[in-house]
């Protein structure tokens, strides 16, 4: 029975053919194993590359966030600077208005001083009488006008002083 089975086996697949097929399958298995190792190496390289790209993307994202933060801070500083420029322009306008007021006050003070001086000259030019001091009605009017003008002059100088002080404070604030 054993001999018959061996004969059948030998007839079914010749031994040399069996060994050749086995050697071919072993070579194919070795080639597949080698290809599998190559694919595993490529897979590792690909994983490393993916990891590197992910790390780079994360770094780029953090850099972008930092740049956006810097941009936001710069925009905020720009807005603050623009607000400061507007405020300084307003102060400059107030300072110019105060300067105009000071010039107007100076002009008025000068005019009043000239008027007082002229009136004093006119008063001194009046003839003096040797008797008791009797002021003609014109002299009394002139003296009253002189007093009124002197009071107005003092009032104007006081206002002028206040305007100059305000102007100086505006300039000092603008400089600061």
UniProtKB/TrEMBL annotation:
- Keywords for the protein's UniProt record, in alphabetical order: Coiled coil, Repeat
Q: Does the keyword Repeat apply?
A: yes
Instruction: Give the source's domain of life in one word.
Output: Eukaryota
Matching InterPro entries, A to Z? RAI14/UACA (IPR042420)
**A GO term, aspect molecular function:** actin binding
Q: Which residues form a coiled coil?
A: 22-98, 139-166
Q: Which PANTHER family match?
A: ANKYCORBIN (PTHR24129:SF0)
The protein, known as = ANR24 protein
The record lists the lineage as:
Eukaryota, Metazoa, Chordata, Craniata, Vertebrata
